[in-house]
Specification:
Elements: E1 18-19, E2 22-31, E3 40-51, E4 57-64, E5 73-76, E6 81-83, E7 95-102, E8 107-118, E9 132-136, E10 148-150, E11 160-168, E12 174-182, E13 187-195, E14 199-205, E15 224-230, E16 234-242
Antiparallel strand pairs: 1-8, 2-3, 2-7, 3-6, 3-8, 4-5, 4-7, 8-9, 10-15, 11-14, 11-16, 12-13, 12-15
């Protein structure tokens, strides 16, 4: 897709099936470009709250970076799994926002990135639900000037592009340094972007070319990593998209939640 200033480790604190307290989520959607009625698709974030208790639980929406799209609180009934999108007309709005929520300990947060095929020439997706999905993390804010590292930004040997998103949680603009690195070569490409206050901004960054003489010959030549450093409290993510193949999700692993 083109999406608490308390010091924290520069990694995501919760995976797609972990319990949360204060947590930041991605919220929004993006339509892929299409010409001449070619098949295309819509990317959309989705968050499902799984209430593992037998009693109702309340989720508080603490902050929304793009205005009040969601209600200030959400009630998940006992044993219910409730998608966030039903509070936005059953589909996240265009663009990407950062949403902070306060979630009870016995509610599991499952964040997803879904895509839906669009019927050629109609411009509308069929009413069959998503065609596939990928797991998304939930986030915690990272203190200013702490490195946020993203590993494995490749799809094997496929030609890819990498999109990096940065949410600036400060009331003033932030500057982000994005450094892409091909691990075998130690080759680096740097990009600098400015993010307005309380804004989530996504940009496409260049990937270093494969080098002829690897500096680290035992490292796979296709492995690509990134380091993002922002001068304000923030979080970041990086997504890798194939330049040659349409999206597909053909394998999934469910992680256990053990209490």
């Amino acid at each position: 897709m083109k999406a608490c200033p308390v010091p924290a480790p520069p990694v995501t604190l919760w995976t797609s099936s972990a319990a949360a307290a204060y947590s930041w989520l991605l919220f929004g959607s993006s339509r892929a470009a299409s010409t001449n009625c070619a098949p295309t698709y819509i990317w959309a974030t989705e968050t499902v709250f799984h209430n593992t208790s037998s009693s109702d639980r309340q989720i508080i929406v603490l902050h929304q970076s793009k205005g009040e799209i969601l209600p200030p609180s959400i009630v998940v009934r006992g044993g219910e799994s409730l998608p966030l999108s039903i509070f936005a007309g059953d589909f996240p709005p265009p663009g990407l926002a950062a949403v902070e929520v306060d979630v009870p300990a016995d509610v599991i947060v499952e964040s997803r990135l879904e895509y839906r095929n669009i019927l050629p020439c109609s411009g509308q997706p069929p009413a069959l639900g998503p065609s596939g999905k990928l797991a998304l993390p939930s986030f915690a804010l990272v203190a200013a000037n702490r490195q946020q590292r993203h590993f494995g930004l490749d799809l094997g040997v496929q030609s890819v592009r990498v999109n990096v998103g940065v949410y600036n949680a400060a009331p003033i603009p932030a500057i982000a340094m994005i450094e892409m690195r091909r691990a075998a070569c130690d080759d680096r490409v740097s990009t600098v972007i400015t993010i307005p206050a309380d804004t989530l901004l996504q940009t496409t960054v260049s990937v270093p070319a494969i080098c002829v003489a690897p500096l680290h010959p035992r490292t796979p030549f296709w492995t690509v990593n990134a380091t993002v450093t922002i001068d304000q409290p923030s979080f970041s993510y990086a997504t890798t998209v194939s330049n040659t193949q349409p999206p597909s999700a053909t394998f999934g692993v469910g992680m256990p939640d053990v209490r």
